[in-house]
């Protein structure tokens, strides 16, 4: 039987993986000046971690988690998101004892059992960041600004930052009851998912993607009209901080998040065109009680997660110009003596960081030069019997056909002068 990859997962092949590399490198480059440091998290955790943090009534826990019992009888889940694991690590390793704002970011695969479709996979990749230890509205604004900076650096400018406040433990419970009363009048019109969970998590009705439910949601009470004064002041301060950082935003009163742990500021970055109704590129927000729920000290936190596949699909084609590295030099080696001396030179060149390719089959010079052209190599270094005898190697510019002669003993230093010249645009 021919074995293929499981439905909903995919191989990321050369030619495509370079896009991941570019996005990840940009994230590291942007996050570092903000003081964020990378954390590597386990692929699987105790199932209880995600049930406790994400919420029993969420789609992730109810329908999507990859859960199994290991040989020791423990219930294990492949991580469906990263925040819960970061919080677990934060508490386990007592990072809160550092008495400072802890800023962490992560990259890697997540797993959810859902119907594979365009931009959605059962194994997918996320980049996330968490700022842990401060309730300051400036932290909210700074993290969102950092994210928009990342998108702009990748060439993604046609996006909109949408923000809302979900209130706090003081003002959300009465709003929740008000919302339930309003939803009850429309139960016979809502989809089955909303009718099943409105008692336990009525805010999810506001997040439903069914068209009719979205229309109904527009007429339901808005949490922005029922915030306590402290939450109103906090949300105003977040907006003022974003304005001070010159980060454009809009307030979306219908915006909620699918995970139970969010409080106060929540946000999404959405594409302005080309993504259809599922136009959210990423989202996140404040979660001030999750660390405490994991038996850590009271720790206000703010974070986000970006789906890498969706981000890559959204970025303009101009982002990917020249992402596949072509050889700097194709070494054309002709004869045994050339092979021996040529490999010494090749290793020295590679030690300088240059990409050197060669033919391994002993083909003719004509065949090797054709291969150098196919590989789009910048230069060809030609070493044959004559070059070995005279100790004069030939370096050919594959772009304009110009050739120069190099002294064998100084060829690496002489090649450097040519390779250090920027490639033509």
Automatic annotation (TrEMBL):
GN (gene name): hisS
Keyword DNA repair assigned to the entry: answer is no
Spell out the InterPro entries in the cross-references: aa-tRNA-synth_II, aa-tRNA-synth_II/BPL/LPL, Anticodon-bd, Anticodon-bd_dom_sf, His-tRNA-ligase, HisRS-like_core, HisRS/HisZ, HisRS_anticodon
- Gene3D superfamilies xref list: Anticodon-binding domain, Bira Bifunctional Protein, Domain 2
The EC code for this enzyme is 6.1.1.21
Ranges where the Aminoacyl-transfer RNA synthetases class-II family profile domain occurs: 1-327
| Organism encoding this protein | Nitrospina watsonii
Of which family is this protein a member? Answer: Belongs to the class-II aminoacyl-tRNA synthetase family.
Instruction: Quote the catalytic activity from the record.
Output: tRNA(His) + L-histidine + ATP = L-histidyl-tRNA(His) + AMP + diphosphate + H(+)
- Subunit info? Homodimer.
UniProt keyword terms in alphabetical order: Aminoacyl-tRNA synthetase, ATP-binding, Cytoplasm, Ligase, Nucleotide-binding, Protein biosynthesis
Q: What is this protein called?
A: Histidine--tRNA ligase
Keyword set includes Repeat: no
């Amino acid at each position: 039987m021919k074995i293929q990859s499981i439905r909903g997962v995919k191989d990321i092949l050369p030619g495509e993986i370079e896009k991941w590399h570019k996005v990840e490198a940009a994230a590291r480059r942007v996050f570092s000046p903000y003081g964020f440091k990378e954390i590597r998290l386990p692929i699987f955790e105790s199932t209880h971690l995600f049930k406790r943090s994400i919420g029993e009534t969420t789609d992730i826990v109810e329908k999507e988690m990859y859960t199994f019992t290991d040989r020791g009888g423990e219930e294990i889940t492949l991580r469906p998101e990263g925040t819960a694991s970061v919080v677990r690590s934060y508490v386990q390793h007592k990072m809160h004892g550092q008495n400072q704002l802890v800023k962490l970011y992560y990259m890697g695969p997540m797993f959810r059992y859902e119907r594979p479709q365009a931009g959605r996979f059962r194994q997918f990749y996320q980049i996330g960041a968490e700022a842990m230890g401060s309730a300051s509205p400036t932290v909210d604004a700074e993290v969102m600004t950092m994210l928009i900076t990342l998108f702009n650096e990748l060439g993604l400018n046609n996006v909109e930052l949408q923000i809302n406040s979900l209130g706090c433990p003081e003002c959300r419970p009465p709003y929740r009851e008000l919302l339930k009363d309003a939803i009850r009048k429309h139960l016979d019109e809502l989809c089955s998912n909303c009718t099943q969970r409105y008692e336990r998590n009525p805010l999810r009705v506001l997040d439903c993607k069914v068209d009719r439910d979205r229309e109904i949601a527009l007429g339901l009470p808005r949490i922005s009209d029922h915030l306590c004064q402290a939450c109103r002041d906090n949300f105003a301060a977040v907006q003022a901080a974003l304005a001070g950082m010159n980060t454009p935003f809009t307030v979306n009163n219908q915006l909620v998040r699918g995970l139970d742990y969010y409080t106060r500021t929540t946000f999404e970055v959405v594409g302005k065109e080309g993504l259809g109704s599922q136009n959210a590129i990423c989202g996140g927000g404040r979660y001030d009680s999750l660390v405490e729920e994991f038996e850590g000290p009271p720790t206000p936190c703010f974070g986000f997660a970006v789906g890498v596949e969706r981000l890559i699909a959204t970025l303009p084609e101009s982002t990917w110009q020249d992402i596949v590295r072509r050889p700097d030099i194709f070494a054309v080696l002709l004869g045994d003596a050339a092979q021996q001396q040529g490999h010494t030179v090749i290793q020295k060149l590679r030690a300088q960081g240059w990409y050197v390719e060669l033919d391994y089959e002993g083909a003719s010079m004509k065949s090797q030069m054709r291969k150098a052209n196919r590989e789009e190599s910048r230069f060809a270094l030609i070493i044959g019997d004559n070059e070995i005898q005279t100790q004069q190697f030939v370096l050919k510019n594959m772009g304009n056909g110009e050739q120069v002669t190099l002294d064998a003993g100084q060829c690496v230093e002489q090649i450097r002068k040519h390779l250090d010249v920027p490639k033509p645009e």
